[in-house]
Amino acid sequence: MKVIVTGGGGYIGSHTILNILKETTWEVYSIDSHINSTPETFDRIEKISGKRITNYNVDVSDFKALKSCISQIPNVNGIIHFAALKAVGESVEQPLLYYRNNIQGLLNILECCKDLKINNLIFSSSCSIYGNVANLPVDESTPLAKTESPYAATKAMGEAILSDVQKSQKMSITALRYFNPVGAHESGLIGENPINKPNNLFPVITQTAVGKMDKMSVFGVDYNTRDGSCVRDYIHVSDIAKAHILALEKSVERKNFNNVQFYNLGSGNGVSVLEALNTFEKISGLSLNYELDERRVGDVEAIYSNSAKAKKELGWIPKHDLEEMMSSSWKWQQQLEKEKNA
Ligand code: NAD
Ligand code: WQD
Q: What is the SS3 assignment for 108?
């Protein structure tokens, strides 16, 4: 199998490449413009796996450059398309950037699949397309809500585009709807390294713990949840990575091309913000400097997944619990501190 991973320099892409290198004999290439990562990721991948991955520094929203790049790699069996911008707040400020990058990028990937006869595509979707849901947990039949941000809109539109293309083109398309990917590789040598001030809970926690941030806020403690803080479905990035291998294997075996295959990828456990903080304090033995703050605009109260479909059809079984998610994030943050002080 020959596979292209777009966004291989990023958080989930790099963990997926590592998983592919460890568990398969696939030949893997990356296409990443490093708009939100650095080439150093590939040094880290090499350090862990002993293998050097070729990354093409190409913007997937530039059709000519993308097609010329993919044409250099003959007989590609599948593309795992991670490359997208993902900051919800930034997407509200710069919607055109998000639509151009994420939608144009997807259109170009699909056009290349058609022209170059690449028959399998795995697309990174997001639980953000479900919005505020009345009934939990959400499964793939839960109706999609009105999207709350241009970012979420690019994922909902992306799925709609895929559904139309699937009807017209004999290729196998899978959209994986990730809940909240967190954690880091077991080696502690690679993980999420936000270039700007982080917005997501886990990097905020670990950066507060090392003093990179003075203190952190718990956004809202008056929600209708068991302790008043928001509930989310955190899922280890290595479990998310594994699902891509299973989804691509399944995609290649497929005989029926009528519909896009949609899968939720979550642990199925709702965890509140305060529970996440307590778990961090437990695994680290540290006391976090946090305050109870106002609600954050745009947050949904609670969401968690029913991932039975991915378990049944892909054989996907998440292996890492919340403590492992937290301790691997912490190990990675400490590694970054060590490197900074070296
Ligand atoms: P990331 O920013 O760490 O990785 C994305 C990578 O894609 C980066 O290396 C970036 O440089 C690259 N990229 C972006 N636009 C590009 C372009 N036009 N051309 C070439 N490269 C480009 O993000 P991530 O967390 O690894 O997310 C991967 C995918 O998963 C994204 O599509 C994201 O929307 C989706 N997703 C992420 C989460 C999450 O919480 N991390 C949740 C749901 C869905
Ligand atoms: C989790 C909880 C915050 C920071 C986002 C995207 C979503 C998807 C996953 C890409 C919330 C609370 C956070 C802090 C806090 N990404 N929090 N203090 O918002 O569930 O989802 O990432 O597709 O589209 O929206 O994740 O990690 O930002 O927040 O109290 O400093 O932690 O209010 O309840 P979210 P998150």
A: helix
